[in-house]
């Protein structure tokens, strides 16, 4: 049986070798909370052993963010230094690898003025738009992972003491990410092969529409011509293989921007900017959210949907079965990386250009004509459970069940 330290080492190896696939003489950007510094040291050692050249760090701390929101002059939420974004943009433009360690206290900012959070988020998103576009367009091999923090662990295991909650969350992360297997690297390669079969099927069918039926959900989603389903392994524009999320259980594509109609209801809470949005519902007409409801976090959701004009349109449609190891835990993680891989989901905002033929090389005007949404945001929200079914309709009008009661039906 592996020790905790051995599992940590295996997790670091999985991230650097499979998630990022670090190359010799490649620059490397790490965004992480200061609380994760010990684990980041393991990542850095592995990265250098694989030949990484220079490593650049972007540290953050939730408590410092809270202090800033409560004490900084109001003007700071409308400005952000361009030189910082330009520096990181230059790195990814030249193919630097990017690791984001996503750890958040789900309700840290619940008492902060929502307008400050909105302005701050829009300012930073606009400043880093070119950086984000290079990453999403496939210039870099990138990966998003999570490690426990006390606030996150306590949000999942509310009745446990701090240390026990963190220990249990580590156990869940190791199990979900196949670290407990004898050979996690091979286990992930086998997992990718399974996802590849679903991708191949959907790409061959080239469905024109998807019909979603579930609890309080009745939605029609048009897919653009020459769409491409992705999932598991991805490729940079130079052909480098990587996995953008660890964990990942999804097969995903983009909807046609103006072809979503009906009602879509959440099945899990969404953590966004230190706030929880829960039991929300969207009403779509010709791709746009024309009205919405939320039992919790209405103001936060309203601010999210007003990030820019395109934030009221969808950029991703993803299919995840309830046999996902994350769903099978029966837990809500209040962390989008984990919750989105427990459930079928959509994303508000930008689409991934590699989800349509030649999308990486299209101009902005060509993408708009093809129905590819472009926004300063990309926010996933969960809509799946064991009541959800999806029917695909081909160009000829044939309707085929592809997902039934939360499981693949192909």
TrEMBL record:
Give the GO terms filed under biological process for this record.
proteolysis
Keywords associated with the record: Aminopeptidase, Hydrolase, Metal-binding, Metalloprotease, Protease
Q: Gene3D superfamilies given for it?
A: Thermophilic metalloprotease (M29)
Write one Gene Ontology MF term: metallopeptidase activity
The record's section on InterPro entries has: M29_Exopeptidase (IPR052170), M29_N-terminal (IPR035097), Peptidase_M29 (IPR000787)
Needs which cofactor? Co(2+); Mg(2+); Zn(2+)
Coiled-coil positions are none
Q: Which domain of life is it from?
A: Bacteria
| Similarity comment | Belongs to the peptidase M29 family.
Q: What is this protein called?
A: Peptidase M29 aminopeptidase II
């Amino acid at each position: 049986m592996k020790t905790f330290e051995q599992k940590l080492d295996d997790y670091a190896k999985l991230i650097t070798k499979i998630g990022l696939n670090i190359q010799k003489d490649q620059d490397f950007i790490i965004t992480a909370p200061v609380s994760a510094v010990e684990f980041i040291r393991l990542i850095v050692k592995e990265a250098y052993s694989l030949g990484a050249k220079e490593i650049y760090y972007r540290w953050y701390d939730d408590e410092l963010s809270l202090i800033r929101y409560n004490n900084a002059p109001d003007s700071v939420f409308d400005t952000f230094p361009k030189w910082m974004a330009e520096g990181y943009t230059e790195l990814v433009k030249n193919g630097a690898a990017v690791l984001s360690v996503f750890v958040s206290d789900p309700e840290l900012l619940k008492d902060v003025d929502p307008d400050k959070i909105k302005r701050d988020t829009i300012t930073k998103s606009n400043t880093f738009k070119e950086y984000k576009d290079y990453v999403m367009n496939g210039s870099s091999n990138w990966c998003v992972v999570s490690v426990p923090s006390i606030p996150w662990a306590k949000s999942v295991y509310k009745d446990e003491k701090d240390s026990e909650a963190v220990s249990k969350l580590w156990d869940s992360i190791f199990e979900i990410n196949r670290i407990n297997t004898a050979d996690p690297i091979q286990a992930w390669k086998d997992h990718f092969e399974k996802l590849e079969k679903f991708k191949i099927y959907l790409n061959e069918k080239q469905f024109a529409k998807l019909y979603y039926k579930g609890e309080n959900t009745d939605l029609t989603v048009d897919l653009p011509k020459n769409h491409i389903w992705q999932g598991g392994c991805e490729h940079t524009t130079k052909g480098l293989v990587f996995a953008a999320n660890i964990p990942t259980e999804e097969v995903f594509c983009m909807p046609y921007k103006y072809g979503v109609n009906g009602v879509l209801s959440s099945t899990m809470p969404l953590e966004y900017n230190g706030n929880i949005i829960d039991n929300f519902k969207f009403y779509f007409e010709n791709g746009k959210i024309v009205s919405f409801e939320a039992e919790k976090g209405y103001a936060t959701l309203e601010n999210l949907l007003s990030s820019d004009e395109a934030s009221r349109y969808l950029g991703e449609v993803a299919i995840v079965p309830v046999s996902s190891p994350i769903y099978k835990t029966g837990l809500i993680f209040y962390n989008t990386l984990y919750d989105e891989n427990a459930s079928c989901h959509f994303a508000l905002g930008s689409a991934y250009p590699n989800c349509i033929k030649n999308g990486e090389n299209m101009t902005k005007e060509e993408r708009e004509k093809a129905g590819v949404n472009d926004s300063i945001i990309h926010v996933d929200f969960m809509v799946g459970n064991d009541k959800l079914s999806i029917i695909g309709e081909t160009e000829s009008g044939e309707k085929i069940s592809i997902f039934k009661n939360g499981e693949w039906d192909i």
